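Sample intake sheet
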Amino acid sequence: MGQFRLYFELGYKHILDINGFDHILFVIALCAIYLARDWKKIIILITAFTIGHSITLAMATLNIVRVNADWIEFLIPVTIAITALANILKPKPSSSKGIQLNYFFAIFFGLIHGLGFSNYLRSLLGREASIFQPLLAFNIGLEVGQLLIVAIFLVSSSLIVGLLGVNRKEWTLVTSAIVLGMAIMMMIDTKFW
């Protein structure tokens, strides 16, 4: 149980690490078009991201896939920028086409995000006899951390849209524009150039 807790906390802290805020930005970009009443859709969306993340994390940890770390560090903010830009270009926050696109972003871009942490996790796992339990614990911790971020974001969104009377579309546009700007800065700051 101690090993499970160790990797659970590692996953939980990974997603909440303010120094590695790329995951936080991506989760916010994914959820920017939703309000608290959409909580079922959001749980599916976040779980899709975790599934994508888990697949490549496991494959990279098992040395099935190897990708240049500089490429991944560049592609992660690209995924954030694309998701935020899609929110800006959507005609309505609740359009079903936009929601379906977000599910695609969640699972496909989750694959890229999973590669971002794989080198570190591979070094932590070292010569573990089985990586199943550590990977499971890490991904459950990741999911819990993501749901905490989503809960905070949705409560904030509901307060701003519901209580302060800010237009929902404007809130989505402002949130997505801020995330887009931060993602562009992250792309510029990568070693890729």
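Comment: The radius of gyration is 17 Å. The first helix runs from residue 2 to 16.
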